[in-house]
Amino acid sequence: MNRNEFNTVFGSICKYYDKDYIKDNEMQQIYFNEMKYINNDFSKYLENIYSKFKFFPKVAELKDLRFKLKEEKGDSVNINAKICECDKCNGSGYRTITEIRYKLPISFLVACDCRNGDNKLYEGSKMKEAKDRSDYVVRRFSHYIPI
């Protein structure tokens, strides 16, 4: 969803629930950050909002609705999809760090601090299944190099 589409959809929701959030830029940005993932099926999205929520929906409720609609549609979540523009990771979500260990340069990947890196975080020791646990970890860039 682009910003113009968002303005139309968000305006409809505000009008339906009789809220004056349409003039609040901070509130708009918070809702846009969640609703920008909706693709083309705005009427079904609005229909679900109006039928499921008695009061103006919270962002968390919209996120749950989005995942439910994706699940019903059979869409899978693409963790490699570019979420935002980032000049540090070029949208991949990964950054490379090179360290000198035992007089040899060692390079390894870390998750970028931008939103693209959110899906790249991993901690093998916290996996639910014992057979899947490992010592592998992918942390944020800022964990290694403070910003």
Structure description:
Helices cover 37% and strands 14% of the residues. With 147 residues, it is an alpha+beta fold. The model has no long low-confidence stretch (mean pLDDT 84).
Keywords:
147 residues, alpha+beta, 2 domains, two-stranded antiparallel sheet, 5 helices, 37% helix
- Biggest beta sheet summary: 2 strands, antiparallel
Terminal residue distance: 31 Å
Radius of gyration: 20 Å
Overall pLDDT score: 84
Helix amount: 25-40%
> What's the number of domains?
2
How big a fraction of the residues is strand? 5-15%
Low-confidence stretches: none
Enumerate how many helices there are, as a single number.
5
Could you give the order of strands across the largest sheet? 1-2
Envelope shape: elongated
Q: How does the helix and strand content classify structurally?
A: alpha+beta
Q: Quick one: how many beta strands?
A: 4
Elements, N to C (H/E): HHHHEEEEH
In short:
The chain is α+β, with helices and mostly antiparallel strands. It has helices spanning 3-16, 25-35, 42-52, 59-73, 141-144, and strands spanning 94-101, 104-111, 122-123, 137-138.
